[in-house]
Design a protein that fits this description.
alpha+beta, 4-stranded mixed beta sheet, globular
């Protein structure tokens, strides 16, 4: 949402541009990969990014879907594609020993930080995704999550209190519902100027949209 300034724009002032809304889950390999390029793509085109931590399980339930690894025919392929896609992007990747995992505690810490300082929330998101997908840090293990919080310069006890706080549980619940209402059914998911893009493999389309505007012929 763009907040209008309380005064008329000065001559020559640049109007704010709609942000890129980036929806991710801490347990999503493709979210990890996308998190490493979305800021640069947006910045090249003069757009800010708003990060949204969500739970894929909630969106899957709303869309009557299951995780790809839940389908035997898909499992071996997607596990290989996670590593291949990371390698293609020049990123380190280690398949977590437990996958997928519940990521609600990491997501609640994100929203707790976002309410204080969005930049710290983004830093936490990056750290959590990298920790899980390059070092096999189990974000669903409270001791490991507290250790990661300390590593990120957070008070681990305050982080634990945040993920146990009903306020941040409710905030995450509301964010999940808002995402579903916006049409989000997977991660990574991007909404740009009201247009939805699903998947890490939509990078080229996103870059084109940001640089040139809506595609011709789209209603």
């Amino acid at each position: 949402m763009i907040i209008e300034p309380p005064f008329p724009e000065r001559a020559g002032a640049v109007a704010p541009r709609n942000p890129v809304h980036f929806y991710f889950d801490f347990s999503s390999p493709y979210s990890y990969i996308a998190s490493e390029w979305i800021e640069a793509v947006a910045a090249r085109n003069g757009r800010p990014v708003q990060w949204h931590a969500i739970l894929l399980g909630v969106t899957f339930q709303a869309a009557e879907l299951k995780p790809p690894v839940a389908y035997p025919l898909k499992r071996d392929y997607v596990l290989r594609d996670f590593a291949r896609s990371a390698q293609f992007a020049g990123l380190p990747y280690k398949q977590p020993s437990a996958f997928p995992i519940a990521s609600q505690n990491a997501a609640r810490v994100f929203w707790w930080l976002q309410a204080q300082d969005p930049a710290r929330a983004v830093a936490w998101a990056r750290a959590g995704l990298r920790a899980y997908f390059t070092r096999d840090v189990a974000l669903n293990d409270e001791a490991q999550l507290k250790a990661l919080a300390a590593e990120c310069g957070l008070d681990p006890e305050a982080a634990q209190a945040a993920w146990q706080d009903p306020q941040w549980k409710e905030r995450l619940k509301n964010e999940n519902q808002a995402a579903i209402a916006a049409g989000v059914f997977g991660a990574p998911f991007f909404i740009i100027d009201g247009e939805g893009f699903w998947g890490n493999d939509r990078q080229a389309q996103i870059e084109r949209w940001l640089s040139s505007g809506p595609f011709r012929g789209l209603v």
